[in-house]
Structure formats: C-alpha cells, structure tokens
Amino acid sequence: MTLHTGHIAPATFAVSQVRCEKDHVRSRDCAYQVAWNINPHMKPGAVAWRRACAQHREFLRTLRKAGGTFFELPFVHGAFDSVFAKDNAVLVSQEGELRALLATMRHGQRRNEQLARARWLAARGFDVIEPPRVHIEGGDVAMLPAGRGALLGWGMRSTQRAAGVLEAFLSAPVTPLELCDPYLYHLDTALTVLSDGTALVCPEAFTPESLRMLARTEGIQQVVPIAREDALAFGLNLVEVGNTVIIGARVPRVEAVLRGLGRRPVSVRLDQFHLAGGSAACLVARVHTLPPMNAQRFREEQQQDEAQQLSA
Question: Where is the active site (predicted)?
Fold first, then answer.
C-alpha cells in the first residue's frame, strides 16, 4: 500500500508486526523476543510470546479506538527490536510529500533493521533520506507543537551533532538535551511533549544545563516534573491521540497529572515489551504533519543568531 499525503490523518502511525509473514520456513528468529542486552531493562529469554502478541493486538485496538490510524511494516527476520518502529526513522508529511529520515543506530544488533525498513518505507511512498554519519535514533526525537522544531536527546544512543542533521531535515530549530541516566536511555523514556506544549519530564534523567535549555525552548509552555520511579515504569513512554493518552502500564501519578491537564489516560498492559526496554511510544512512529516549509526564513534566522553571537 502506498500512502498519499491527502489521506494522512492527524494521528497516523507506522507500526511493526511482531513476527514474520508466512513466506519462508519458520524458525526461532521469526518473532519478537529478547535475545541480547543493549539497555539495562533487557532480560534475554524472558518474553512470554503469546502474551506479547495479545498485548500488541490490544494496544493497536486501543490506538484505533482513540482515533489513530496506522500502516504495518513487516517484522525484520532476526532483528527482534524491529517491533519498536519509532526508532527506525523520523517520519513527516509536508507540502504534499512524505519524507523519512532514516536512523543511524548505535548498536549493531539494531543496524540490521535499517535496510529493510528503508525499502518498505519507500514502497509506502516516503522519500527516504539516507542515514547520517552520526548516531541518531527516532526514540531520541520529540517534536514540538505547530512545527516549532524538535528536542533531541543525546548522550546514550544519539550524538549531540545529530541536532544539526535533524534541523536540516525539519528546516526548524532543534534543542539538544543531554541524557545522563542509563535506565532512561532514549528521550522518549524520560520526557514527553503534549500537543499543547506541556512537557512531562523526569528531571533526574537530564543534566542541569539541559533542564534550563528545555525551559527556555520556544514551544514549551510548561514543564511538569515526573518522579523517576514513574519514568522507570514507562509512564512517560506514551502516545497521545486527540484527548486520549495511551500508557503501557498503570502509573497512577502520571495518570492524575494527565487528567489535571484535561486528558483521558488509558492504560494498556505492555509489560512483555518492557522486558526489552520499550513501551507504547516505542511501538509506533507517528507521521508528523509539518506546516509549509520555510527553509529560507529558517536559514536567515540562523544567520542572524550566528551574527549576534559573534558580535556579543
């Protein structure tokens, strides 16, 4: 199926299947599992396969019920983390075009996914941008409302220099935030930005300077601190669809914050994916709808900022 931007709904996502299609001889490598350890949450051999399948189906059912639409990407044989579709690419819809910035994964176990992902995204109508020479992963990118740019987590998986790559892709400013907690290794485990510009943040996951930068970022309306305990329960790894916020666990304090912000939190058990270090946000890659490109104005603003810094 080829996507057309005229058919992109406000909440459209790419999701991965959790096992291979029946087009080759079945083996142990045909389905999601935890077979290595590249983050502190991973517990090799611990996944209950049938439970994982049931949880994934329920998650997608909840996503659809909330008003989300999605298209499926095939599971990559032997690349078990390919279920976490968000990490593979940053997806945008802009001025009649679909574009995908392919990630450059830090760990070799995940690089095996990228060739297949690039091929399948291209088949679905995306102009796939080759992965940059610096590490950047989709889980480290948080988009800001109204096309104001993005936040980039760096220090664990992505590198600080990737901010420039992302700025060029979006033609919008990117604020790099340094992560310092190995258990909160991707930005989407430590922070989420809601559609009104509210940032829910685990302060312990960031350096003090990064927290100051976040508070000054245009597009961030308020910063709400969330306890590290709740972040470790994947309470910030959530998916917002309209007024509904899907969380992959019961996290009462985060749910209370969301209700106070006028949202409707819905919890779906995703503990079988927590065993690999991911949850709701990791399982989907949102197609972000951007405003008309104004690359020339962005370049002019960059030049003005650089001139002011030189004259200061």
Answer: 186, 282
Quickly state the pLDDT bin for 20 (edges 50, 70, 90).
Answer: confident
**Which residues form the catalytic set?**
186, 282
pLDDT bucket at 10, cuts 50 / 70 / 90: confident
- With b meaning 16 or more CB within 10 Å and e meaning fewer, what string describes 63-72? beebebebbe
Residues 198/199/200/205 CA torsion (nearest 10 deg): -170
What is the rounded distance in angstroms from the CA atom of residue 146 to the CA atom of residue 49?
40
Answer whether residue 306 shows pLDDT above 70.
no
Q: List the end-to-end C-alpha distance of the chain, in Å, as a whole number.
A: 53
Q: What is the DSSP string of 67-80?
A: T-EEEEEPPPTT-G
pTM of the model: 0.91
Using only the alpha carbons of the chain, give its radius of gyration.
19
Strands 222-225 and 198-201: parallel
Strands 150-154 and 174-178: what pairing?
parallel
Instruction: DSSP letter for 134, please.
Output: S
Closest CA to 150 of 128, 168, 133: 168
Contact of 254 with 235, CB cutoff 8 Å? yes
Going by the DSSP 8-state scheme, the letter that residue 212 receives in this structure is H
Q: What percent of the chain has pLDDT over 70?
A: 89
- Residue 134 neighbours by CB distance under 10 Å: 15
Which domains are delineated in the chain?
Answer: 10-304 (3.75.10.10)
Residue 78 has pLDDT above 90, yes or no: no
Phi-psi region for residue 45, left (φ > 0), alpha (ψ -120 to 50) or beta?
Answer: left
Rounded CA separation 289/307 (Å) = 31
* Cβ contact 11:93 at 8 Å: no
